[in-house]
Write a structure and sequence with these properties.
IclR family transcriptional regulator; about 260 residues; DNA-binding; Tscrpt_reg_IclR_N; DNA binding; WH-like_DNA-bd_sf; 2 domains; Arc Repressor Mutant, subunit A; alpha+beta
Length: about 260
């Protein structure tokens, strides 16, 4: 059965789209019009749904700016879910170690369906930083180094199906065409780590390594971002070794539970 024919399914889909979009915004929140545009929901419908969510505590509205933010009820639910799903505390020390060893900004991201979501950010000592990635930021698989690392180690049939069904060029340009992604996947599998040569923001480079579940599925990634000259070709093997070392150790720790 088409899920949209299930009573209430369309409302659920719209509500979750609004909440996901809110989760990607910076702490100041976002307005109704921007949320409606980003989720392809009409403004009146978006406002009605957001108001209903606010009544239940799932979102808040800043009375000064009119922007919407995630609400306290989601925090309470998240703390309960964290007991089963949260691995960020285990990952946090590896993120900190990478930031300390390299001087770059280090991250831990999780796969959620066809996207990656940044869970942890730790800035290193180098004073010039990239702000492409922050906690809550989502990117499609294959975009940014974390998503490329994960996509590269998905089962071949799963990755190929994603590539043939997904068009990233409209939002991210021809550098994210199917053929270009296949080439970067091959390069990632050759070295073990992914490289994003400033494909999202000019001058902002990234590198990432997949972290695996006990069954060998790429579910998370550790990554680094910084300016182009800090990711020069002669330094990439060093950064790659550090990423792979921490990704391997984190994989082993998560497997042990």
């Amino acid at each position: 059965m088409d899920e949209m024919r299930t009573p209430g399914a369309q409302v659920v889909a719209r509500v979750t789209a609004l909440l996901r979009e809110l989760s990607t915004t910076m702490p100041e929140g976002v307005g109704t019009t921007a949320l409606a545009t980003a989720t392809a929901i009409s403004r009146p419908t978006a406002h009605r749904l957001l108001s209903a969510l606010a009544e239940q505590g799932f979102v808040d509205r800043d009375t000064r700016t009119g922007n919407w933010l995630l609400g306290p009820e989601l925090f309470l639910m998240g703390t309960v879910a964290a007991e089963r799903y949260d691995v960020t505390e285990i990952a946090r020390e590896h993120v900190a170690a990478l930031a300390d060893a390299t001087g770059e900004s280090a991250f831990f991201s999780v796969r959620r369906g066809s996207e990656t979501v940044c869970l942890v950010r730790q800035d290193g000592s180098f004073p010039i930083r990239s702000f492409v990635l922050h906690e809550g930021k989502r990117f499609p698989l294959g975009v940014a180094s974390a998503g490329l690392a994960i996509l590269s180690y998905l089962p071949a049939a799963t990755a190929e199906r994603y590539l043939t069904e997904t068009d990233l060029t409209g939002e991210f340009g021809d550098a994210h065409s199917t053929d270009a992604l296949r080439a970067r996947i091959a390069a990632t599998r050759d070295t073990g780590y992914a490289v994003n040569p400033a494909l999202i923001v000019p001058g902002s480079w990234g590198m990432g390594a997949a972290v695996f579940t006990a069954t060998g599925q790429p579910a998370w990634a550790l990554s680094l971002t910084g300016t182009e000259h800090r990711f020069a070709a002669e330094r990439q093997p060093e950064l790659g070794r550090l990423l792979l070392d921490h990704a391997h150790r984190l994989t082993e720790r998560l497997a042990r539970g």
